[in-house]
Amino acid sequence: MRTQPPRLLAAALVTALAASTFPAVGTALAVDYERVLNGTFENGSADPWWSSAGVTNRVTGGELCASVTGGTTNPWDALVGQNGVPFESGQSYTLSFDAHATTAQTVAAAAGESVSPYRGIARQEFALTPAKQRFTFTFTSTLDFPDAGNGQLAFQLGGQSFANTICVDNVSLIGGVKPPGGITPNPTRKVQVDLVGYVPGLPKRATLVSTATTPQTWTLKNSAGATVATGQTTPKGADATSGDSVHLIDFSSFDTQGTGYTLSVGADSSFPFDISSDAIKKLRYDSLAFFYHQRSGTPIDAQFVGAEYARPAGHVNVAPNQGDNNVPCRTDLACGYTLDVRGGWYDAGDHGKYVVNGGIAAWQLLNSYERASRIGDASAFRDGSMAIPEKSNGVPDLLDEARWEVDFLLKMQAPDGMAHHKIHDAAWTALPTRPELDDQVRRLSATSTAATLNLAAVAAQASRLWRGIDATYSAKLLAAARKAYTAAKANPAKLADPNDNVGGGAYDDKTVSDEFYWAAAELYATTGEAAYRTDVTASPHYKAASLSRAGFFWGGTAPLGDITLALAPNGLPAADIAAIKSAFASVADQHLTAMAAMGYAAPYDNSTDGYVWGSNSAVLNNAQVLALAHDFTGAAKYRDGVFEALHYLLGRNPLSTSYVAGYGDQAVRNVHHRFWAHQNDATLPIAPPGSLSGGPNSALQDPVAQRVLVGCPQQKCWVDDIGAYSVNEVAVNWNSALAWVSGWAAEKSGTPVTKPDCEVRYDANKWQTGLSAHVSLTNTGTTAWNGWKLAFSFPGTQKVTTGWSANWSQTGRDVTATNMPWNGQVEPGKSVYIGFNASGSGSDPAAFTVNGKTCKTG
């Protein structure tokens, strides 16, 4: 974490410090408060250790090895160091480390200030040899840099005529009387609101932090400071997850649109917020813009992202890149081929591209479009709706963005049909490193069953959506999906290596029955073929058996199959589809019950593992369950639960922080990212608007979190620091969840989508050369039908041969059915049942109209 120039000591200070002496071995300290981050380099990363010009850091064999250019004059001309090290004036510290050098030389360890005037605390020289030695010295701090302030520890490696390699390991700095951490990363307010705004017509709730046991008076003021509403809080008491004692504020009765509102209780006031649907509609597109920013293998053009975020293409074999056009397998795999895997999205804050993360992310974008097309409003994603290069190609922009990743997934397919798990650098790149400046060798990891099934599922889903847009591409996708599924069944337990975590995350998954169910569901929904149907209905995950408050994520994908079966027309029994939808409503009810007891309502189950890595994505994936429960039932309580989840993410949380960059007066800025790294390099930008931070992680799984979040309540285990990767990284599968939910919420904001006046349920029994279909038409409107006309199109070669209970006709693929004299009158809430036999084959019709109106499909 190099936030300041590594000029710890000027020559005069070095001279002054050199006159002091330090004992070679220090006495044991009574308290061992560790001050150094990542001193063992066990995770294969050098972060947050920085190096100066002429020094290149690499973690090799579990050590940090610095290649130092020769010809420097002074020891401080070549440095390796770490900033933000806490020191307390007058307290004793012991530094210890292992070190060796290719060529024997003297180095120095120095403690001091990382910013001007660069005051020194202590310095000691050590004679390194090719043999590893343990070094220790103790000193007393003369300066005070508590809570990870401007303190610094550095190794001075210069002053030699020759080039050298110097390695250190097991670096430890212990001492002091105050444990590092326990700090609040952002100033908090006692009145917690959504920092962005509340949608008119929907509930508006806030949280007051107060130990008072009686109701308190709240006041809502407009931007001019005039009081527009008052009321009484509802005491709720101690909230264990946040550590706060809280009251509920409900100001839903006030519904006047405007900006700059504040909510106050006594002298405590909230951040300003709006009552408007504008922000959520904007977030729908900013959350999707994240994916264009993350594209690999193409320039990011200023006309779409602004000059601040524009950059050249990364990993296209232009120096210093070694490129993604001809990538071999890891050296220990010797697969005998290379793949051109240019394109796709960088997964997170590094330069890796992962099939299992990319799979669920692409699926979520595609599902957002499919859901909107079938039961919502897909016009929001029309061609020209997004700022991307493909915005004028006649294809809905959301599909264009998803295709960037889908095409990459196809490229990850090996000749035998299996898919490689991931592709990334052979070693972790430094922070920061822009993609076009990455000089690391790129390597394919082994193929895996999980990755192969991700490819099968997403390719089958995409084939279904592109069928009416590009038949050739649709066929290519389906062929790849079939090949992958067949390969996975032939290799049902080829699991990713949990130790393959150098240069990229392992993403190992010990259970793949959920991926088999998901892939079979997608293939069945696309093809209607009996073999896939058998795999779906025989799965232990069938009928949402795996859906729970724990939700879904990249390693637990069975509910994705349930969502597709509930949305895409297929031939499964109506009772089974109803069971899936009922399960979503049941789990949604469990979320709402739990949320009612929370100080900061969020659909999240912390009962087993606390708050985990990427907790914000879990909140959003569970919000998707709530949204679908609303779609399936129409119940307003589920819609309100979705917006409560967004309020939590956008500021109604115990940190008074919006976890979405660019949204709210106190929004995340310093996400863990290689090129949105302003905290480390002022020439680089902060996270762009619409980027989602991973959120609280009570396991404290990175050195920064371990140092500054000691003893944090679960919902407060977060800090806006670029080095805190376990709480503040971004990832494509987290932003895809934000895009799905914000797109849904935008659809429900402002002018509501008109509820369909009809519902069609299509259930077909198929054989190799034909089918028999039963169709129900339900009047879901408020007026009776005095005659009806059903219309749909076959996607395959089906031809109606006979029919019953309607007048059937077909022209090309277009089929119509009109009422008989005895079943034309259909009252609201009533249904009519018709059917037909047909020759040929193909998947089920995708959409139905009755009397010219698009119907909901069941």
Automatic annotation (TrEMBL):
Signal peptide start and end residues: 1-30
EC numbers, comma separated? 3.2.1.4
Q: Which UniProt keywords apply?
A: Carbohydrate metabolism, Cellulose degradation, Glycosidase, Hydrolase, Polysaccharide degradation, Signal
Q: Where are the transmembrane segments?
A: none
Does the keyword Metal-binding belong to this entry? no
Q: Which residue numbers delimit the CBM2 domain?
A: 751-858
By its UniProt entry, which Pfam families does this protein fall under? CBM_2, CBM_4_9, CelD_N, Glyco_hydro_9
Reactions it catalyzes: Endohydrolysis of (1->4)-beta-D-glucosidic linkages in cellulose, lichenin and cereal beta-D-glucans
As for family, the record states: Belongs to the glycosyl hydrolase 9 (cellulase E) family.
Instruction: State the protein's name.
Output: Endoglucanase
